[in-house]
Amino acid sequence: MAGDRTVRELEGFLAERADRLLQTAVLLTGSRDAGQDLLQTALERLLRHWRRLDGDPEAYLRRTLYNLAADGFRCRRVLQRKLLLLRAAVPPPPDPTAVVDLRDALVRMLVQLPPRQRAVLVLRYWEQLTEAETAAVLGLPEGTVKSAASRGLRRLRELAGGWHRAAPGDDRNRVELKR
Question: Which pLDDT value is given to residue 163?
Answer without folding.
Answer: 66
